[in-house]
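Can anyone check this?
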Amino acid sequence: MEFLKQSGLPSRAEAVNQMCVLLMSETLRFAEKQLPSLSVACGMVIASDAGAAAHVLRESAERAMYRAKERTEGMSPRPSSLALENGTEIQLFQTSGLKD
């Protein structure tokens, strides 16, 4: 979460961390069988231009999300992940909290 804190978003970074940990801690059952744990892949865009086109921002966030998903491919259990649009760092979240 360090890159979010450096961008001036510490409370939002902590909120993302808490959301991921809570979702991954849920136990889901179907037909009396436990389902695999949930994980979240997030792509985030920070824009300072109020006139930025929504579809451009969404596409940028989607590209970042796919980078986050790719980073956790093959991991078991799959951690949640967060990537910023133009960053190279991807944050991983485990059920016990943040893991760099």
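Reply from J.R.: I decoded it. Residues 22 and 95 are 8 Å apart (CA to CA).
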